[in-house]
Amino acid sequence: MDVTPGSVQGPTAGAGQALDRRVELSEFLRTRRARLKPEDVGLPDFGRHRRVPGLRREELAQLAGVSLAYYTRLEQGNGRNVSAEVLDAIARALRLSDAEHAHLTHLAKPKAHKKKPSARSQQVRSSLRQLLDTFDAVPAYIVGRRAEVLAWNRMAAAVFGDWSRLPQQERNWARMVFLQPEYHDLFVDWEQKAIDIVCQLRYEAGCYPDDPRLSALVGELSVKSAEFRRLWATHDVKEKSHGLKQLRHPLVGDLDLQFESFRPPSDGELSMVTYHAEPGSASAEALRLLASWGTDATRAATTAPGH
Description:
By secondary structure, the protein is of the alpha+beta class. It has helices spanning 21-34, 57-64, 68-75, 84-94, 98-108, 126-134, 154-160, 173-179, 182-186, 190-207, 212-224, 226-232, 282-293, 295-303, and strands at residues 140-143, 149-152, 242-249, 253-262, 271-276. Helix 10 packs across helix 12.
């Protein structure tokens, strides 16, 4: 099996070995620099005489207003004593998004956590679980920082499948999307769903590189899924809080659903995700049918072809 260098730190990463923050910083900066062309930032392009994809280190250093030696040390993974002002300048030069800028800061200037992340699953307050159950016609679930599905309502089970039938460890969006073929069929644009999951996991890995469960998940998926390895090697990061998901449901057919993601103020490591359809649309009618079928829809969707 061929694993991209720097994407997973050795064969023991699947056992929960921490991700190497220096390697992550180096690869992130290198891949961000490689995606920029000189003309993107107002520099002359020397065409075929350029030996590297994207910007050269000296060009990036010039744009950021730092010395080549300083930037080279940073791209080699040495973020010690780098200032927030320099990181801001490099982020502007690389044209980083807000999520990418935050990720760069996490890697170069990590916050000191009072304790290492627990190896146990995250917990959901009972009041949040009760809130999910009040959404009678709205598919909703709560997901943790490791892409774990921690709680869900009846409508989420009717739309996405009955997660209660899965072992707790398998109730994870990354494992489901990359390792369960039925989710290839469920998502019309499976590739985009896979990209979203990997980008979010990469962002969380930058925040919590010492999380053993998160490192183990990355290691497992890198071994078992070529698609995951390919996407993980891009070092792309983003936080996606809303958008459109198109599903191909085994019972009611195509669903166009808008999703919104919220972080409870007192539980910032959790996200509540809700889905709704445009009023009066065919998708809204399909959700109404699923809601009227209740638990029968959940059982039928689970046993239908593709689930």
